[in-house]
Amino acid sequence: VQLQASGGGLVQAGGSLRLSCAASGRTLSSYILGWFRQAPGKEREFVAAIDWTSGVTFYADSVKGRSTISRVNARNTVYLQMNTLKPEDTAVYYCAAARRLSGDYRTIRPYDYWGQGTLVTVSS
Predict the structure, then answer these.
(1) 68-101: per-residue pLDDT in tens?
(2) How is residue 28 annotated by DSSP?
(3) What span, in angstroms and rounded, lies between the C-alpha atoms of 46 and 59?
(4) If you compute the radius of gyration of the chain from its CA atoms, what whole number of angstroms results?
(5) What is the pLDDT of residues 33-55, one digit of tens each?
(6) What is the full DSSP assignment across 32-101?
(7) Would you state the pLDDT for residue 101?
(8) What 8-state DSSP symbol labels residue 16?
(9) How far apart are CA 101 and CA 119, in angstroms?
């Protein structure tokens, strides 16, 4: 699976961004698509994930209620809509793919495929 993330940028606190992750190479029906982020000097952390087949979603507590993960099957694309952004949301955001039933999707371990990352900067 090849993943191409886009949509990052500079936004003021309180603003919104929508990240996109275009997938290619394989059918995604057996995969979980996730978003992770990594701030400078910090470990990569889980943000959100979606089961491509069922649409079931998972969120980190830090973004729950402010973010929505979704997918458009026909476009093979997963989106992360982020609202009410805070300076602490500043990070490089990565999309990733994990096979279903391969582990805890809120951790890095199950994810075999990673996109290149897109930078989100939230100014105060």
Answers:
(1) 999 999 999 999 999 999 999 999 999 999 998 8
(2) -
(3) 8
(4) 13
(5) 999 999 999 999 999 999 999 99
(6) EEEEEEE-TTS--EEEEEEETTT--EEE-TTTTTTEEEEEEGGGTEEEEEE-S--GGG-EEEEEEEEETT
(7) 86
(8) -
(9) 30
